[in-house]
Amino acid sequence: MTEPSGRRERKKAATRQKIADTALRLFLERGYDAVGIRDVAAEADVAVTTLFSHFASKEALVFDQDENFERRLTRAVTDRPPHEPLIPALRREILALLRHCASEAAAPIWRMIDGSPALREYEKSMMTRHAESLAAAIAADLGLPRPTTACRTIARFTVDAYSLAREAADPETALDEIFRMVEAAWEVARPDTASRAFAHHGSGAQDVG
């Protein structure tokens, strides 16, 4: 008799979480560079191949919420209530992520990341990927076939807002300041605004003619 798919998925998720929790504990206890993949697998009581079936690299063990955060960003666009403006929806999600990751308990993790060139580089590539996914979601929301420069710029600003606010003395005040600038930029650059401005300009030029 085969195991029900729901139970398999729960077991898979539990194993993944166990590996991530074990890795983080070892990294914080011994130092990131002092712990190897085999150390994590042995401590979590899983095979190395099992570990790699859940995490593609050692760096990925630290950012185990990577895919979840990426989904949350895109869903802030796709699942927001009808008629809610884009930028406030993005700000709300970034604020939620910021509160989740800026707690005192998270401080040792960020110190570890900041002290490791490999982790900083991984975080940079991860944030770039998140921005590209967000840009695609914004473009789709506007009915565009592909992300425009405006979509990609606002997506990058949004993702960077998280990092900038996290590093600030007052993260939430910094986030408010950043998103005022993001909203102002979007009002000028968003494709539908640009199209209307172009149409108005073109109409005025025709009238003059």
From TrEMBL:
PROSITE patterns, A to Z: HTH_TETR_2
The alphabetical list of record keywords is: DNA-binding, Transcription, Transcription regulation
- DNA-binding region positions on the chain: 36-55
Q: Does the keyword Repeat apply?
A: no
**Domain (HTH tetR-type): residue spans on this chain:** 13-73
Q: Which domain of life is it from?
A: Bacteria
Q: Does the record bear Transcription regulation in its keywords?
A: yes
Mention one GO molecular function.
DNA-binding transcription factor activity
Listed Gene3D superfamilies: Homeodomain-like, Tetracycline Repressor, domain 2
Supply the InterPro entries for this chain.
Homeodomain-like_sf, HTH-type_TetR-like_transc_reg, HTH_TetR
Q: Which PANTHER family match?
A: HTH-TYPE TRANSCRIPTIONAL REGULATOR BETI, HTH-TYPE TRANSCRIPTIONAL REGULATOR RUTR
Question: What protein name does the entry list?
Answer: TetR family transcriptional regulator
What organism does the UniProt record list as the source? Saccharothrix coeruleofusca
List the top taxonomic levels of the source.
Bacteria, Bacillati, Actinomycetota, Actinomycetes, Pseudonocardiales
